[in-house]
């Protein structure tokens, strides 16, 4: 079954998405449905060669703007590209959605139309993050979907992160940790302490709290936090990276020797950028939905967006959602306890 | 009046602190009281030349261990070096305390003995952070003192951060921002939205929300957050910095050319480390206490610890605490409103 690609949104709507889809078809043999303005897509496709059995177009007549509120997009734009793409999954005509459009609207639409996996209260965005070990990335979730999180939700994030690490990262027994302001048990605010207790009782390989500094050191495979903290962590990491680049560029100009050194280090700097950024993964997964949903940065280039389509196909092939459902059933006792703790949600 | 220096704690207790104190006396003419084991300090001082009018010793008989709980330290060690140092401030024999000891114990002792400045509910740790502009650092607070924060506390952090930026950073009208998961008004959890409203009504130059990525870009002077988020932000920034260093070191070894480039870039890398780290500031301020309290990293070297003593003296000379008290009176109306919001604390 094909992957539905929302061709709207992002910095270069249509052009990037269509070329990326063509490359996903040609490079990996993935089947794709392009969703958007039919004629424009058809026009753009003329520039490319591809196996036409694997690529079709489904028309949509509206577009969710990047600054539009998710609620209004959901209510008022039932023919938007993201809505039509998600509907394809609901109707069993596609297995996954990939979008670089308005993230809030994509999440809201997926949650509303496809609903959560049974036993999951709140879907979460999982971001694949680099560690100092070239081949050992880790999963951070929630990277921004839920600002306020009860222990029940955080516990479910841990289950989903574990399933993601077992399938997508091919790990046998992922080390799961809670992002906290200290390693000792009892750290953090009350919801974190309660989540810690739930995780200790679970079937997960819970290794305790981890600090923001240590998480890049290849010590854990899954880092759990609420979406507010996840957003701060990701953005501070990006900001620090930009800070370092900016200072080095400035300081290099102070001497000819260091200008030369900078050129001679082109290789390592390029490798650093590749190892730090998301382009090989292509996008973040919205986990916990009945269907695979991959959210891409608005500034994604063709290579990145193509990889996001591949990422979606892999999650389908690896039966990620069955794994999540399995983790929920294995930990039902702890989930029920968390529900009592939360006043019976 | 002198600065009280806790000679215990840190990675090299006594040696670092005593030498740093001698240098603060010799380099800046600051008066210092060294607090700790009298005979050991006396012995160590024999290695140095200094103006003995400006340096005296006060004996203490106990030491708070680095892993001791703040509550037990406070209850059971009334003759610890930190307690004796703080008592000196209380008794009007010193104006400030500098310590590289157990941070939690130092904070708890200072709060318990010296009490908060009138109108400040919760003291906060203010950290001076670098921006991309060499001469424009910014203040981030709370960097870790308070895990849970009501809008009232966050608002008071903003007042203290503003006073700190006006005095210590010599700014006329600091731009104050709230660390949040988006720039738009209405972002974040409910306490942040309420804090946003309080800040809008205040006499501060409130510029709105700032994201974790943008705060390093020399856009704002004071960044307000709760101590949990502050801890995560600082640690993630450190972790990202370490990540970058570690990857570059690894990648450089892949070719002779880049090894040479690395050597040729020694200058810029050194400048980057200097601009990124805290050693010129020497330590973080615990703001909101009746007395100046500077908290140093446990791994502080002599240069850093000396600068922390200078930092303390500057805060005294700049009458930082009068400025904080002034900001409280100027914004009493908003504070009272916040108290009603919080159920009358």
What does this structure look like?
2 copies of one chain form a homodimer. By secondary structure, chain A is an alpha/beta fold. The first copy, chain A, folds into 2 domains: 3-114, Isopropylmalate Dehydrogenase (3-Layer(aba) Sandwich); 124-278 and 324-341, Isopropylmalate Dehydrogenase, CATH 3.40.718.10. In chain A, 47% of the residues lie in helices and 14% in strands. In chain A, helix 1 crosses helix 11. The longest helix of chain A has 26 residues, at 227-252. The mean pLDDT of chain A is 94. Chains A and B meet through helix 8, helix 9 and helix 10 of A and helix 8, helix 9 and helix 10 of B.
Write the SSE topology.
Two copies of one chain form a homodimer.
Chain A lengths: L2 E4 L8 H14 L3 E5 L1 H8 L9 E5 L10 H7 L4 H10 L5 E4 L3 H12 L9 E6 L8 E4 L9 H17 L7 E5 L10 H12 L3 E6 L11 E3 L2 H26 L3 H9 L1 H11 L7 E4 L4 E4 L6 H16 L2 H11 L1 H10 L4
Count of the domains of chain A = 2
- What amount of the residues of chain A lies in strands? 5-15%
Oligomer: homodimer
Strand order of the largest sheet of chain A: 3-2-1-4-11-10-5-6-9-7-8
Query: If you consult CATH, what is the topology of the largest domain in chain A?
Result: Isopropylmalate Dehydrogenase
Number of strands of chain A: 11
* Number of helical stretches of at least 4 residues of chain A: 13
Instruction: Determine Rg of chain A (CA atoms, Å).
Output: 21 Å
For the report, how would you describe the main beta sheet of chain A?
A: 11 strands, mixed
């Amino acid at each position: 079954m094909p992957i539905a690609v929302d061709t709207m949104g992002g910095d270069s709507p249509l052009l990037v998405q269509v070329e990326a889809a063509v490359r996903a078809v040609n490079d990996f043999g993935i089947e794709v449905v392009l969703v958007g303005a039919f004629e424009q897509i058809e026009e753009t496709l003329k520039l490319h060669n591809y196996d036409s059995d694997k690529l079709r177009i489904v028309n949509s007549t509206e577009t969710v703007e990047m600054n539009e509120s998710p609620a209004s997009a959901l209510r008022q734009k039932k023919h938007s590209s993201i809505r039509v793409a998600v509907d394809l999954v609901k109707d069993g005509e596609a297995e996954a959605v990939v979008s670089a459009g308005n993230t809030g609207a994509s999440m809201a639409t997926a949650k509303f139309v496809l609903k959560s996996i049974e036993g999951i209260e709140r879907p979460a965005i999982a971001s694949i993050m680099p560690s100092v070990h070239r081949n050992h990335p880790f999963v951070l979730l929630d990277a921004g979907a839920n600002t306020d999180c009860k222990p029940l939700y955080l516990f479910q994030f841990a289950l989903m992160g574990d399933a993601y690490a077992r399938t997508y990262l091919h790990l046998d027994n992922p080390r799961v940790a809670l992002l906290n302001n200290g390693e000792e048990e009892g750290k953090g605010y009350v919801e974190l302490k309660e989540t810690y207790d739930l995780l200790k009782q679970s079937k997960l390989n819970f290794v305790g709290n981890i600090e923001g500094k240590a998480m890049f050191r290849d010590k854990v495979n899954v880092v759990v936090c609420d979406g507010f903290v996840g957003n701060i962590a990701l953005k501070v990491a990006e900001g620090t990276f930009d800070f370092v680049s900016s200072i080095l560029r400035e300081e290099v100009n102070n001497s000819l020797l260091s200008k030369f050194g900078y050129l001679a280090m082109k290789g390592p700097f390029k490798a650093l950028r590749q190892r730090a950024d998301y382009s090989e993964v292509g996008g973040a997964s919205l986990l916990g939905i009945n269907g695979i949903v991959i959210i891409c940065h608005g500034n994604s280039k063709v290579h990145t967006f193509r990889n996001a389509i591949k990422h979606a196909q892999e999650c389908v092939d690896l039966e990620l959602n069955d794994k999540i459902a399995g983790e929920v059933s294995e930990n039902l006792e702890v989930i029920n306890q968390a529900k009592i703790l939360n006043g019976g949600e």
